[in-house]
Amino acid sequence: xxxxxxxxxxxxxxxxxxxxxxxxxxxxxxxxxxxxxxxxxxxxxxxxxxxxxxxxxxxxxxxxxxxxxxxxxxxxxxxxxxxxxxxxxxxxxxxxxxxxxxxxxxxxxxxxxxxxxxxxxxxxxxxxxxxxxxxxxxxxxxxxxxxxxx
Length: 150
What we know:
Blueprint: E1 15-25, E2 30-38, E3 44-47, E4 49-53, E5 57-64, E6 67-74, E7 77-82, E8 88-100, E9 103-112, E10 121-124, H1 125-128, E11 132-139
């Protein structure tokens, strides 16, 4: 599922991440926003509206921080997904890079309306793979720290 993975950890130990991390989507030109790390979810999901697809591409709008990003990516496929409320939905799947701190992962991401979910992106267990351990009480462990100015 992972087409490319860059990991920077000592001695190939798993990277510890928080249950919520700041991520960015470099291929889409989207800066940092919060994503929830959910080991109970299988795949990754991205908040998208106005999803339109043809045989080869998907166009969608990613509404973040009072800005609407108009995106177009190759359609990687369609997938049936059972949401947290038990509803089964067929979603468009795209493949894109997701950057968490200094780590860049290429992953399959399903597109769905996550308006009521609190965060725009969910990263599930198969999206991250075995290279990560999730700390259930910490957030933004991989996010760059803001330096305090004296």
